Amino acid sequence: MDDLDRRIINELRLNGRATYAELGRQVGLSASAVHERVGKLESSGVITGYHATVDPSSIGLGVTALVGIQPSDNAEDNEVAVKLGELVEVESCWAVAGDEAFVVKVRVPTVDELERTLGRLRRIDGVARTRTTVVLSTRFEGRPNTATAE
Amino acid sequence: MDDLDRRIINELRLNGRATYAELGRQVGLSASAVHERVGKLESSGVITGYHATVDPSSIGLGVTALVGIQPSDNAEDNEVAVKLGELVEVESCWAVAGDEAFVVKVRVPTVDELERTLGRLRRIDGVARTRTTVVLSTRFEGRPNTATAE
DNA sequence: GATGCGGCGGTCCAAGTCGTCCACGCGCAG
DNA sequence: CTGCGCGTGGACGACTTGGACCGCCGCATC
């Protein structure tokens, strides 16, 4: 992973649909060379995917919340994480330090649906309590951090 | 926004580099028709971008934390949010209900750097206290929620 | 109820660009 | 010298992208 790789990655983080030819122009390589480098970055697990980002409220997901998951005494973290992953409305799941086992981000259409989701979360084996923080507005999200990448 | 749009969006959320021809095959339209639909989805703000997702530790960002931002009494939220956005290590920023004004997700190379980042956060005008939750592992993140999208 | 019309949204087509593969060249280490 | 890593350039099929055209639907008119 050299400087050229970092520049390619950076470009792809900003514009995931950039063509190889375009990337080549940006970094001063032929499209073939870029193609090969990107292929290696993908197969070595540095680039894990490409995704369109969508305005959540446009697709009927206007309510976001961060939920801390307090485990019960006998909880097995990995099992709980799998169960959390089975709920489609759970978009992200972080295992954290502190008295909560996980913090998850959920995205649902309405507060009614949020209530139902919290019910589903509490019903998971190993979940003792939940602590919900409602998101009022998302100022920005998933911004590419290029601190070390360029 | 009809069912075809939703299927196209869904596909692009899973594979942001899908070609128009490919999308056309999936949904049963010509590439031209898909091209036009995607163009409209982009210009109407439903699709806000395309991004490669990168394994953070591969690019030297091995430490993640969620930080609650408690505002000082005279804080002006919008100004604080702008300042938060100026720190590249702040990847996401949500304005939340509760006694914290924001929760941000930061991504840094090391815990040393985390300490420095927390210092920078506290030095922002309008920030009284921070409450940091260190992420031990990211189980999943930014997963496309297709609950209403398909 | 027919008829005509206009716009939306699709197909088809064609020119240009791009992706993808392969042969080859260059620099370098063993 | 040889092999290897990594690049270039070329070739060809696939894709993009815009335009011409067409069918359908709703609507106003007769």
TrEMBL record, chains A, B:
Q: Which residues form the HTH asnC-type domain?
A: 1-62
Arranged from A to Z, the UniProt key words for this protein are: DNA-binding, Transcription, Transcription regulation
First and last residue of the signal peptide: none
InterPro entries documented for this protein: ArsR-like_HTH, AsnC-type_HTH_dom, Dimeric_a/b-barrel, Tscrpt_reg_AsnC-like, Tscrpt_reg_AsnC/Lrp_C, Tscrpt_reg_HTH_AsnC-type_CS, WH-like_DNA-bd_sf, WH_DNA-bd_sf
Q: Name one Pfam family in it.
A: AsnC_trans_reg
Q: Check the record and name the SMART domains matching this protein.
A: HTH_ASNC
Name it. Transcription regulator AsnC
